[in-house]
Amino acid sequence: MEPGQFFGGLMDDYFAECDEHLASLRRLLMELEQDGVARPFAEERVRGIFRALHTLKGLSGMVGFAESEAVAHALEEWLRGAAPDGFVPPGASLDPLFEGTALLERCLQARRTDAAPLEVDAFVSRIRRAPPEPAGAAPAPPASGLTAAEALRLEAARARGDRVQELEFVPTPEGVARGVGVEAVRGRLSELGEILQVVPRVLPGRGVAFRFVVALAEGRDVPEGWRADGLSWEAPRAEPREAAAPVPGAAASNVVRVGLPRLDELLRMVGELVISRSRLNDLLRGSWNGGAVPLDALEEINAGMERQLRDLREGVMRVRLVAVGEAFERMRFVVRDVAVGAGKDVRVEMRGQDTELDKLVVERMLEPLLHLVRNAVSHGIERPAEREAAGKPRQGRLLLAASAAGERVRVEVADDGRGIDRDAVAARAREQGLAVAEAPDDAALLEILCTPGFSTREVADLASGRGIGMDVVRSTLRALGGELSMSTEAGRGTRFAVELPLTLMIVDALLVRIGGQTMAVPQPALLEVIQVEADEVVTLENNEVVRYRGKVLPLLRLGRLFALDGDEGEARASFPVLVVGSEAQPTGLAVDRLAGLREIVVRPLADPLVAVPGIAAATELGDGRVCLILDAAELVQLGQRMREAAAVSGGASSRSPAGVA
Amino acid sequence: MTSILVVDDSATMRRMVMAALRGLGDVGFHEAQSGLEAIERLSVEPVDLVLLDLNMPDMHGLEVLRFLRSHRAFETLPVVVLTTRGDEESRAAALGEGATLYLTKPFAPGDLAPRVRELLERG
Predict the structure, then answer these.
(1) What pairs with residue B104 in β-bridges?
(2) CATH class of domain segment(s) B2-122
(3) Is the pTM of this model over 0.90?
């Protein structure tokens, strides 16, 4: 049996873990290249790269992906040759690693999409060195004491005035069972300060103890409460000194992690809901015993639960937030790639990498961001000689910045390149028959650039390439609920800004046409879609019904319900009906036409003035049109009430159905 | 019930190893994602056999092995070192530090279980 088949159930895990290792490879490589290979933390980074390659190789071997295994192996060997003792000599080029990482990514992508495995022999033999030096094959584990990196960290900690504290942790079965294990302790301590060393120590019986050496910044102490968890330490010796800026430590791998406080917060919300339910329970029990149910108390609980559920929903959304930093790191990789190819020298600056955004938004924003960055480097920023002639520093600057404002996050891509040539773009636009103002302002300029089909390669050069695919960039961002803006100044550079929602909900929805409008119905609400012939519709006590699975399906004409003009469906010989509600009590929603399935971003309608019964939210289609999302559950209720009203008034009601709500 | 501790910083690799050992029958698995966690597990839970990866962050597998062999309680505990192809040089080092068995990944899923069964029966 093929190993790949044997581990078939683990392939998703395989790809997910490979993605993580690729992300940390990219990050480490960039850091290494940026900070230089001779800096104190380089050794740790090289080790991190080794480890990521090694794991990629091992995992790929297990699933039988020989080409990924070969590339990872070749890179490992190459690095081993380049950095025999964990230090890359200054001046050494890391290009094979960059190239190989990109190749690995493509190899995995091919496998993921079931495409043919990539051909990698050429790359592997190209980077293979003359016999790899036998000495120092794997980074040898230290026998005892501090490794070089640990010693450097200790030195750095002392230099910035940290207090060095030793602690001992003795694990117990009970502690481990409730999550107080050595890794948890390490996690706690690393939040408190910088862990310089952890070593195990033999205790009698099966016992072990772990000795932690931690550098604590001034004013930081180990909380006394931790003694109860099996931690012990001696009272600190006071030797405070002035603290300096923290040294960047090795960043954690890029997984969606949820901080304990966030989970605690969720738990608290669930606790509140439990309390509300028990109050409800008490009321019900009272009513069983013959007491009347106080309606106002029910109302109060209902209102409370509504608020609690809203809080909970928001809380869960917050769990999905991740820092944009990783997306930015990927951009760094792209910048390097494009800059090398185009003979540019570009420095990437980042701000606000810790700004958090919904994981989905971050993922979806990657493509448009990539586009903006690529354009900025290949067309915005000039070649070094040209920059020098214009009196600018030879090295161009690209800024990636993120900042949060309320429920929105602003992401910016700014370059200090030549800016967009307004007149050239305007002239070209007129040539193509677009109506353009004499001197278009930034907004008008962006409008031109985002006109579908506007750009050509020739214009791309004139317009610093901003035109290419900008319509796609903008529509992708719009579909995410984002808005694109731009400012540009000739000779000074261009800045694109994207405003994105902090969180978003995406659902599959069926788009339907009703009286000339497009509306969306979330797919989970649909039981079925049926085609109904006009002559199948029977009017029963002023309500329209059709036969459906041996029962009667009440029909709601959405065109009439929303009083939309031009209800073409009325006259049609047959029309589609969306069956919604429960299996036991379905309701049919008659629409004019189906317009396809689509993934949509749900944007709640917060303004009470636009709240309409039967409308849950809105979404924006890729072309910028707003589309309302129907609330199927509410429509079913509406239908129910209409029927009841009709029954009460003996079928004489002529009120507008929407007016019933 | 036999208790086996699988030590690897890669969660996927741990699951692959456990999948390959499913055929062993009445076995309970413990997992550790780091050398420190492995040592902790061993001290709080009875374990019959350890499958140990070498290349792990913070504490190298060889360090774990060296520590275990220095601890009277774990002197004779069977430790199977699993490393990735290309690390063959570390074989001598691992055996020198007291590894019971040294296997190279990728292993064919059918190969691992018999070797482990043999060790368990011998112990």
Answers:
(1) B83
(2) alpha beta
(3) no
